[in-house]
Amino acid sequence: MIKNIIFDLGNVLLSFKPNEFLLKFTNDKEYIDQFVLKVTRSKTWLELDRGVESLENARNIFLSKYPQEKDFIELFFDQWMDMLTPIEENIEILEEINKLGYQSYILSNFIKETFSYVNSKYSFFSLFDGQIISGVENIIKPEKAIYELLLHRYNLIPEESLFIDDILFFLKPAKKLGMKTIWNRPETDLREELKKLDILP
Ligand SMILES: [Mg+2]
After folding, report:
1. pLDDT given at position 26
2. What's the predicted TM-score (pTM) here?
3. Across residues 158-185, what is the average pLDDT?
4. What kind of fold does domain 4-15+86-196 have according to CATH?
5. What is the DSSP string of 121-159?
């Protein structure tokens, strides 16, 4: 029987669409696609997720690496935290599972400073029974240690735990440890999936 529901943040509870935001400032979609990949798929971004780099340093690293793109780098670093917005239908699900008596947790690759920001901005964070944030713990998914940390810190039995993530790759270690998983793709109806598992009525 499932007792614990563990949520990823990005693209499960918080939407992150930097491309849409930046396209308000240019019509060059190709440039923006490249720009966003360059920033968010970089080694520096991984170091932010792991909590070994600060946002201020990261901004400076990008500015010195791509001086000709100063405007977009500044725009991105000034505003990107506000590009993270709640996915309302999934927040409703979180509220419902709380009322039904399940424990809920966060397991997310997320930048420490950004977590503080969204945590104080959105009230739904008070619903969780615990959280493992990569930038705080200095380990990232899909490293096995971050899943084990979650289980140990909160005394969770893997077989009683369900993990929801939008990246298939991040579900594998959870599955290996015995947890149930839901791959939350853009076309996934999370409510339906939770009904199938008898978690929601
Ligand atoms: Mg995600």
Report:
1. 93
2. 0.94
3. 98
4. Rossmann fold (3.40.50)
5. H-GGGGG-SEEEEHHHHT--TT-HHHHHHHHHHTT--GG
Q: How many Å lie between the centroid of ligand 1 and the Cα of residue 50?
A: 15
Which two tokens mark 45? 């971004």
* Backbone region of residue 10 per phi and psi (left: phi > 0; alpha: psi in -120 to 50; beta: other values): beta
How many percent of the chain have pLDDT more than 90?
97
Residue-range domain boundaries for the chain: 4-15+86-196, 16-83
Contact predicate 94/104, CB 8 Å: yes
Q: Span 32-49, mean pLDDT?
A: 96
- How far away, in angstroms, is 68 Cα from ligand 1 center? 30
Give me the amino acid identity at 197.
L
14 CA from centroid of ligand 1 (Å): 8
